[in-house]
Design the sequence.
């Protein structure tokens, strides 16, 4: 089992920055992939970014490339999402997820490929 707890969301203005955190506990050493997804109001959950196999590779959705950065601190078992130049369309509940298999690594942008999820943190961007 892996437990994930997100934090760092809030209400900000367009152009602002936030750093979201995802603290992991449990079988964290088994995680192949740590991903961030988001779910805008009334829409499906969508891929944001992922860090794969201990940081060897990172992947981003086109909509956030150049503005969002994923990183991890293995000593703290924490994954971070630095979000800059926020736009109103970034408004969503942001979720952290852990994938434990090669399947997660291959299908990193698919919610079904992840085994564990956090409860989410709300990010609201006003114009």
Sequence:
């Amino acid at each position: 089992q892996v437990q994930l707890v997100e934090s760092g969301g809030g209400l900000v203005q367009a152009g602002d920055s936030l750093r979201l955190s995802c603290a992991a506990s449990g079988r964290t050493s088994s995680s192949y992939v740590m991903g961030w997804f988001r779910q805008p109001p009334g829409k499906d959950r969508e891929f944001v970014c992922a860090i794969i196999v201990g940081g060897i590779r990172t992947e981003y959705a086109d909509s956030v490339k150049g503005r969002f950065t994923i990183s991890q601190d293995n000593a703290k078992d924490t994954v971070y999402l630095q979000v800059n130049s926020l736009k109103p369309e970034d408004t969503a509940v942001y979720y952290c997820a852990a994938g434990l298999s090669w399947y997660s690594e291959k299908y990193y942008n698919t919610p079904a490929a992840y085994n564990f999820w956090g409860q989410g943190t709300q990010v609201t961007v006003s114009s």
